[in-house]
């Protein structure tokens, strides 16, 4: 809200001239019984209603890290880590993603000028205008993130 308050406003719409990029999670749901997806869903809703011109919400699935946590591995992460090879065999585009790929796709989206949320030829899974704020909100799935990074890598080699 502080960013919205301090940012210059569009004189016609009153929206902050800000493109806010947020890393949420696959399965984010404001109505979930579980705390993690519920809090991610609540944050998505709140960001969409603040009044930014654009909000890009990335919903990655299981994040693969390069380096282990300094504080050690949590039990759920340990179990999921053992399942990653199986999940990737079934469908990497819908089950896993590297932290680096998420960061790269978020950077590319943040610098994209396309009003429909298109990044590197990839249109997000959903684009909507928030009824409260009138902000344009784009939701990028795990598969979208994979495709953005793949297309960027291909175009960089040209």
Task: Please describe the structure with a list of short key phrases separated by commas or semicolons.
158 residues, alpha/beta, four-stranded mixed beta sheet, 5 helices
Task: Write structural notes for this entry.
This protein is α/β, with parallel strands linked by helices and 158 residues long. Helix content is 44%, strand content 19%. It has helices at residues 2-6, 35-50, 75-95, 99-111, 142-156; strands at 16-23, 52-58, 62-64, 96-98, 126-129, 136-140. It has a 4-stranded mixed sheet with strand order 1-2-6-5, sandwiched between helices. A two-stranded parallel sheet has the order 3-4. The protein is globular and about 55 Å long. The relative contact order is 0.16.
Task: Please write out the topology.
Layout (H helix, E strand, L loop, with lengths): L1 H5 L9 E8 L11 H16 L1 E7 L3 E3 L10 H21 E3 H13 L14 E4 L6 E5 L1 H15 L2
Parallel strand pairs: 1-2, 2-6, 3-4
Antiparallel strand pairs: 5-6
- The coarse overall form would be globular
Q: What structural class do you assign from the helix and strand content?
A: alpha/beta
Low-confidence segments: none
How many strands, which pairing sense, and closed or not: the largest β-sheet?
Answer: 4 strands, mixed
Amount of beta strand: 15-25%
Number of helices: 5
**Gyration radius, in Å:** 17 Å
Beta strands, count: 6
Helix coverage percent of residues? 40-55%
Distance between the termini: 41 Å
Spell the H/E element sequence: HEHEEHEHEEH
Mean pLDDT: 88
Strand order of the largest sheet: 1-2-6-5
């Amino acid at each position: 809200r502080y960013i919205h308050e301090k940012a210059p406003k569009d004189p016609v719409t009153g929206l902050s001239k800000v493109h806010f990029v947020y890393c949420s999670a696959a399965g984010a749901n404001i109505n979930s019984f579980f705390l993690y997806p519920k809090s991610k869903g609540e944050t998505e809703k709140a960001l969409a209603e603040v009044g930014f011109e654009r909000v890009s919400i990335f919903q990655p699935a299981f994040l693969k890290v390069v380096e282990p946590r300094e504080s050690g591995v949590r039990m759920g992460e340990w179990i999921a880590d053992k399942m990653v090879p199986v999940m990737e065999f079934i469908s990497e585009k819908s089950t896993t993603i590297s932290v680096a790929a998420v960061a790269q796709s978020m950077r590319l989206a943040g610098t994209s000028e396309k009003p429909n949320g298109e990044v590197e030829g990839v249109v997000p899974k959903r684009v909507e205008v928030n009824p409260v704020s009138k902000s344009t909100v784009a939701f990028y799935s795990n598969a979208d993130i994979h495709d953005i990074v793949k297309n960027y890598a291909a175009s960089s080699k040209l």
